[in-house]
Amino acid sequence: MEGQTVANVIVRERRLRWPVPTEIDQLLPGQKINSLSRRAKYLLFETDAGTAMLHLGMSGSVRIIDVDEPAAKHDHVDVQLESGKALRFRDPRRFGSLLWAPDPLEHELLRNLGPEPLSKQFDGDYLWQKSRGRRVSIKQFIMNASVVVGVGNIYASEVLFLAGIHPKRQAGRIAADRMTLLAATIKSVLERAIAAGGTTLKDFYGGDGEPGYFQQQLEVYGRDEESCNRCKSEISLIVLGQRSTFYCKYCQR
DNA sequence: CGCTGACCCTGACGGC
DNA sequence: TGCCGTCAGGGTCAGC
User: Fold this and answer.
1) A47-79 pLDDT, tens digit each
2) What are A174-230's pLDDT values in tens digits?
3) How far is the CA of A71 from the C1' of B12 (A)?
4) Stated in angstroms, how far is A20 CA from B8 C1'?
5) Strand C closer than 7 Å to the CB of A39?
6) A145 touches strand C (CB under 7 A)
7) Of A83, A21, A95, residue with least CA distance to A52
C-alpha cells in the first residue's frame, strides 16, 4: 500500500472497540499513503492529512483483495486504492479499532506506552527500575503495555518458563540479574516467533497468507497436564488477571 | 498511583 | 440436532 493513493473508504460497521471516526471516510480518500509503520500493536497508515491507526484486537485480520470482491459477514471496512485493490478489515469480535490522529504518537492510546521490546532501551536495567515497589505478578507486569509493549498472553507464559521465573512472583521482588535474563528472553522469544511467522493456534495467518509455526516450539502455552520438556513433571494452568497462564511449578521460581 | 475485576463481542466446541 | 456453558491470541476503564 505504501506510496499508493486511496480512492475510497467503505465503512460498513462503525461499532468497533471505539466508534470508527468520520475522518476515516472523510479525510482518507484522495490521500497518498506516505508510509506504513507500527507502534505496539497499532498499524499506522501515514498521509499528509493525518494517520489512520488500525488495531486487530483478538480476532481482526486484514488482507488485500480486488475492490469488487463481495463483502462477507464481519468485513467492516474496505480501504480502496486507485490500483483497483483494497485493504479489507474483518473482525468478528469487534475488539479491534480503526482510529484517526493528526499525530499518532501523541494520541491518548499511544502516548503512555512503554518501549518496544526489541529496542535498545528495553533491557534488564529498565525492567528492574520500573518494577521497584510493584506488587503485581511479573506476568501481568510484562503484559502491561505501559511497561513494555508487544508481550501478549502466549509469549508471556513462554518467556517466563524459559527465564525460570514463576508467573505469580511479585515484579518488585525480582533481582536485577534475573531482570537482565528476563529482558533478554523477551527479545529472543519474540525474535524467534517472528522468524517462525507467528503462532497459529487456530486461525492466525500472517501478512503473506501463511500460518505461523511457532506453536511447534511452545514449551508451556496450551500444554497444561502435559509434561514439562525440561523436568517431565506436569505443566500447571492458573488464571492471572483473567488470562490463562501456563508454567512448570518445578522449573519456575 | 497501583491494582483488581468487569467489560467489550462473536464463534467454536464439548457435554448433555 | 440443538441448547447451554465455557473459552479464546487484546486492551481499557471504573472503583477501591
Assistant:
1) 999 999 999 999 999 999 999 999 999 999 999
2) 999 999 999 999 999 999 999 999 999 888 888 888 999 999 999 999 999 999 999
3) 22
4) 15
5) no
6) yes
7) A21
